[in-house]
Design goal:
47% of the residues lie in helices and 16% in strands. Strand 8 and strand 9 form a beta hairpin. The longest helix has 19 residues.
């Protein structure tokens, strides 16, 4: 790959990054570390790179000539190989001999890229990488990079970032203002149905955009990357998983349901396909805190990383969307330290448990006489039998109250308030 072409692409990237207006996000970078940014396609990884570049120039007196940005999905880089990587250094030194800041988008497209990334780190360069597949850019690859990189998961917009993008004030005083509160609630309803992929916010036809993103993830990050021949099987599997949101489901159950339609499928294929969807950051799962290790692994609850994509599978399932959105917020904060609780022995059934904050959370679209007995009853039973819980919450669509039963207090919290919690 010609160094002059690479230099031209780098200059073009500098010009583009310089001109982009970017919404600040709640991410922090340490100057002394190198980073691998991972997450769902179109979740904002590239934009976060651009913001980092702008901050380096605006706040740390870095010159634009030091920003070396390349997107390896650019068709002009088709055929780029590991042997061409040294030409990036030649091109960078043509632009400046000062310290470089390397920003590489979708670098997993280059076979053996980690060798080059490690060499840059060994030479004391500052490097920021992005990718959309944890199989090649996850924790394992960070270990192969010799501990010189830190993984940072980039999620679609949080609700506070979503409100910032829509220019809706959401500080404590603004939430109390009647008109502004109404705007926040309306935004929460939109966020519930269409999720937080940044580019979808300004679009009128959000569903069509989300469909195109899902198809791109499905085809590029799952089917093509993993060389799957039977698209129909994994498409059906994802639909079945969407139907299970709110419920634990075993591999055996999913296998049985798929085999009823596609007789040639194997149980191991089902397990592999689920892993592929998680590696593409389309899905995540929570496990039963009360279960034995083997049961934790085999009977999780699955959720989608963006509500807008999940809603493509639904016609009218607002309660499932509500629980999925609560799961997203908790997962983005606590990652693998988020669980559900289910015990046949005690009859306890709790949607979410966060050991770090000693919090148990139920999700209910509304709390009527029937659901109150179930949701409140489960939380009280848990608090009576499990000393590790101190905070009891029921997230609803719009209700707010405080329920006191025995010596326990349960916070009934509307969705928008829960989403605004730090």
């Amino acid at each position: 790959m010609n160094p002059d072409l690479l230099a031209a692409l780098i200059l073009e990237g500098q010009k583009n990054i310089k001109s982009i207006a970017i919404i600040p996000r709640d991410y922090h970078f340490e100057d002394s570390l190198n980073y691998v940014l991972v997450g769902l396609r179109r979740a904002g990884k590239s934009t976060l790179l651009f913001k980092r570049a702008q901050d380096l120039v605006d706040k740390q007196n870095v010159d634009w000539s030091q920003i070396i940005y390349l997107n390896f999905e650019d068709e002009r880089l088709d055929g780029f190989q590991l042997a061409d990587c040294n030409n990036i250094l030649i091109a960078a030194n043509q632009l400046t001999t000062k310290k470089h800041y390397f920003l590489f988008d979708e670098i997993q497209n280059i076979a053996g890229w980690e060798k080059f990334a490690r060499r840059l780190a060994d030479q004391g360069e500052s490097v920021y990488l992005t990718g959309s597949n944890s199989k090649v850019l996850g924790h394992d690859i960070v270990l192969r990079l010799g501990g010189r990189y830190m993984t940072k998961y980039v999620a679609p917009f949080s609700f506070t970032e979503y409100l910032t993008a829509k220019k809706i004030p959401h500080d404590k005083l603004s939430v109390l203002d009647t008109v502004n509160n109404g705007q926040i609630r309306a935004a929460a309803n939109e966020y519930l149905c269409y999720g937080g992929l940044p580019e979808s916010i300004i679009l009128t036809d959000k569903r069509n955009y989300l469909t195109s993103i899902y198809q791109n993830v499905f085809l590029a990050d799952i089917i093509v990357r993993n060389k799957i021949r039977n698209e129909k099987t994994i498409s059906l599997l994802l639909r079945k998983i969407a139907d299970t949101v709110m419920h634990q489901v075993s591999y055996a159950t999913l296998y049985k349901n798929i085999k009823n339609v596609i007789s040639t499928v194997s149980r191991n294929s089902i397990i592999d396909y689920i892993d592929y969807a998680k590696e593409a950051y389309l899905l995540f799962s929570t496990k039963n805190y009360f279960a034995k290790f083997s049961e934790r692994e085999s009977s999780p609850k699955y959720y989608f990383t963006d509500n807008g994509i999940l809603n493509l599978f639904y016609l009218d399932k607002l309660p499932a969307l509500l629980e999925n959105l609560v799961a997203i917020k908790l997962h983005n904060k606590y990652q693998e330290n988020l669980f559900y609780l289910k015990s046949q022995k005690t009859g306890i059934d709790i949607d979410f448990y966060v050991p770090a904050s000693k919090t148990a959370i139920q999700v209910a679209w509304e709390v009527n006489d029937t659901s109150k007995e179930r949701e409140v009853g489960n939380l009280i039973k848990l608090a009576d039998n499990f000393d590790e819980v101190e905070n009891l919450i029921i997230v609803t669509h719009g209700e707010e109250a405080e329920i006191q039963q025995k010596d326990k207090i349960i916070q009934l919290m509307p969705l928008y308030k829960f989403l605004l919690m730090r």
